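Module 6 notes. Inverse folding takes a fixed backbone as the condition and produces residue identities as the prediction. Think of it as a translation problem where the source language is geometry and the target language is the twenty amino acids. Below is one complete input and output pair. Work through it position by position during the lab.
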């Protein structure tokens, strides 16, 4: 039996040199909504939410950390399997078309079951993203 009970994903944090630019990308491309963000003083932070309960915390990169600001991979086909966050959309085909119209380089794939489609791409900081298809319930 697991030590923790009632576990659920709370948030993912991304460190960036341009918090506002990255927030705008997630709001415009994936529909995240800006939510109240505590003042941490000394560095910029923006919290975003994707209802019902997923949050993304964008945190200004510490210039003393030595972390690279340039992505190490630029080709979505070469996105490492362990380096991405996956979201799902019910309008997959039109979503992919909108990415392409925005000039976002993508790599599309379909699972052998023929049902699930996937598109891989990067945010402006080079963080890997996957968006997969899902069928919205019929009303």
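Target side of the pair, the amino acids:
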């Amino acid at each position: 039996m697991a030590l923790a009970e009632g576990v659920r994903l709370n948030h993912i944090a991304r460190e960036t040199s341009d918090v506002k630019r990255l927030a705008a990308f997630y709001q415009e491309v994936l529909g995240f909504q800006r939510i109240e963000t505590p003042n941490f003083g000394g560095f910029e932070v923006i919290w975003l939410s994707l209802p019902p309960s997923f949050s993304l915390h964008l945190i200004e990169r510490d210039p003393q950390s030595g972390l690279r600001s340039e992505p190490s991979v630029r080709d979505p086909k070469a996105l490492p399997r362990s380096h991405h966050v996956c979201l799902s959309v019910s309008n997959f085909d039109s979503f992919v078309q909108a990415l392409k119209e925005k000039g976002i380089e993508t790599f599309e794939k379909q699972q052998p079951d023929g049902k699930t489609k996937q598109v891989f791409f990067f945010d402006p900081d080079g963080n890997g993203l996957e968006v997969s298809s899902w069928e919205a319930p019929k009303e």
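Reference fact for the lab report: Strands lie at 11-16, 33-35, 45-50, 54-60, 85-89, 107-110, 117-122, 128-133.
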